[in-house]
Specification:
- It is built from 12 helices and 9 strands.
- The chain is of the alpha+beta class.
- The chain folds into 2 domains: about 70 residues; about 230 residues, BirA Bifunctional Protein, domain 2 (2-Layer Sandwich).
- The strands form 2 sheets. Strands 1-4-5-9-8-7-6 form a 7-stranded mixed beta sheet, with helices on both faces. The chain has a two-stranded antiparallel sheet with strand order 2-3.
- The longest helix is centred in the N-terminal third of the chain and has 21 residues.
- The protein is elongated and about 100 Å long.
- Bound molecules: phenylalanine.
- Phenylalanine binds next to strand 8 and strand 9.
């Protein structure tokens, strides 16, 4: 096609579009000129056969033609959807895609945040890579404590480690805020454990910290945890405290939930005891307050730390902790 012929065709095409009486006619012209097999794309494809010297001028003319045709079509209300949308059968059923479910660990964390949210606790966050001061020293942990041992903790040099607990977020929160403080801190924690059915080198905890200038007692701690137990596990589940030791709380307790399967009567799940251990807790040790610059004469408070995997395992009846990390949809989809 010569340039002159092109100009002729162009004039003809624009005249035809301007004269098109209805949408079907506009569509037919769209297909004829700019459709996939239309005359303009065909010209573009054939460009390589045009003598080299004429190519720039010819190319320009083709592009101009295309732009004018598209402009004219648009002015006539031609759809931008092209041929495909015309072919779509809107009466066919849609494509079904299955909805995912939240991972049980995320669910436990989100539910816990919601339950404590009702009691005025907000969520605090801290890094997984911690320093010795936040993870141990300020938590009143003496240098000879076994948890600091290289065989128990992932150290990177002398002052950098993967946190062994979420308790360092207590320190970060108190250093950054004046009392009163009311937070929970969910997150990943690390210990050099060999992985078996109930242990993993990487697991999750949810820390809780409540500090006030009004006196806070162990009874406050117990009532809050009893409320949490009932909300999380259902009616009939409560807590009991057993004396224990943690360097950063005094007194310290281990916290058991009533076995939610047998409601305390004794069964396989709770090894006939009626109780299941779920957390460590206690009243914040005055030395911890000193480390963060709080006056132990002015403030008091409690702290607790839950194992998220433990709660997920008892809540959903999961016998092996490894199932929580394998991402096997056959397992995860059962918890929908
Ligand atoms: N950090 C303790 C642990 O990992 C749990 C804990 C938290 C105990 C807060 C008391 C207070 O075992």
């Amino acid at each position: 096609m010569t340039l002159a012929e092109l100009e002729n065709e162009k004039a003809e095409s624009l005249k035809a579009i301007a004269a098109a009486a209805d949408a079907a006619a506009v569509e037919a012209l769209r297909v004829k000129y700019v459709g996939r097999n239309g005359s303009i794309p065909a010209l573009i494809k054939a460009m390589k056969d045009v003598p080299k010297e004429e190519r720039p001028a010819f190319g320009k003319a083709v592009q101009a033609w295309r732009a004018e045709v598209e402009g004219a079509l648009a002015a006539k209300g031609a759809g931008a959807g092209g041929e495909k949308s015309v072919d779509a059968d809107l009466t066919l059923p849609g494509r079904w895609r299955s909805l995912g479910v939240k991972h049980p660990l995320s669910r436990v964390i989100e539910e816990t945040a919601a339950i404590f949210g009702h009691l005025g606790f907000t969520v605090a966050d801290g890094p997984e890579l911690e320093n010795k001061f936040n993870n141990f020293t300020a938590l009143n942990t003496p240098p000879h404590h076994p948890s600091m041992d290289r065989s128990d903790t992932f150290w990177f040099g002398d002052d950098c480690l993967l946190r062994t607990q979420t308790s360092p977020v207590q320190i970060r929160t108190m250093m950054a805020n004046k009392p009163p403080v009311r937070v929970i801190c969910p997150g990943r924690t690390y210990r050099r454990d060999t992985t078996d059915a109930t242990h993993s080198a990487n697991f999750h905890q949810i820390e809780g910290l409540y500090v006030d200038t009004k006196p806070v007692s162990l009874a406050d701690l117990k009532s809050v945890l009893a409320y949490f137990a009932k909300e999380m596990m259902g009616d009939g589940v409560t807590v009991r405290f057993r004396p224990h030791f943690f360097p950063f709380t005094e007194p310290s307790v281990e916290v058991d939930f009533t076995c939610h399967v047998c409601k305390g009567r004794g069964c396989n799940v709770c090894k006939q005891s009626g109780w299941i251990e779920v957390a460590g807790a206690g009243m914040v040790d005055p030395r911890v307050f000193k480390f963060v610059g709080y006056d132990p004469e002015e403030v008091s408070g409690y702290a607790f730390g839950f194992g998220v995997e433990r709660i997920a395992m008892i809540k959903y009846g999961i016998p092996d902790i490894r199932w929580l990390y394998e991402n096997d949809v056959r397992f995860l989809s059962q918890l929908a």
